[in-house]
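Lab manual, section 2.4: Encoding a predicted structure.

Procedure: take the sequence of the chain (97 residues), apply the prediction step described in section 2.3, and record the output as structure tokens. A sample record is shown.
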Amino acid sequence: ARYVLSRVVKNFVEMDPSRENNICCSGGGGALINGFARARAYYGKIKVDQIKRSGAQQVCTPCVNCFDGIGNLAREYKEGFEPVHLWTLLANSIVFD
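Recorded output:
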């Protein structure tokens, strides 16, 4: 995914920390549907701060749970970033002549 991203976006920025040390999106493990919205939003603030430090306007993820979790956090905290699926970025980069 990182190789593809580096080829289809102008300014790919890796999260810090990243990979296995990355911060949870707050949507995994069924967190979006378990009824603990306040707790999820509270702990999700750590992810919001991580995204803000990166300066990203779009946060790419191939995961549906992460997409929904990050989108919910952006709305909850009224932030200017949005989630985007990897396949959307790839499809938007294709140019037909």
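Check your result against the sample. The first strand starts at residue 58 and ends at 61.
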